[in-house]
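Case study 2.
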Amino acid sequence: MGTFAKNMKAERLARNLSQENLARLSGVSQQAISMIEAEKRSPTEETMAMIAEGLGCTVGYLITEHRQIKSQPEEMNASELTLLRDYRSLSSQGREYIRQQMVMALKVYPGESVLAADVAE
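Prediction:
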């Protein structure tokens, strides 16, 4: 079995999804999913992206042996990427300072955050 088909099926089964469930989640027909898993059809790039989205993983995982589950529901925009790059370039003291500022900001502007537990303390 090819890597894409093998990983797609393994991920589908690991998530206890039937082919029909994956079809609903991905927007790819159940028949196409069945044919891809049976290696009777090669998926297009668009189909691979739709299946990956339905499985909550990356296309990279489905075409390689390396598990790459999506850790965020959406892509970061250019501004967010710049902030992350700048944050990573800081010293450990700088990162701690930014973390403290974020905790204070979340007290004033509450939102969903991993830091929310810190705010409650």
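Residues 92-108 form the longest helix (17 residues).
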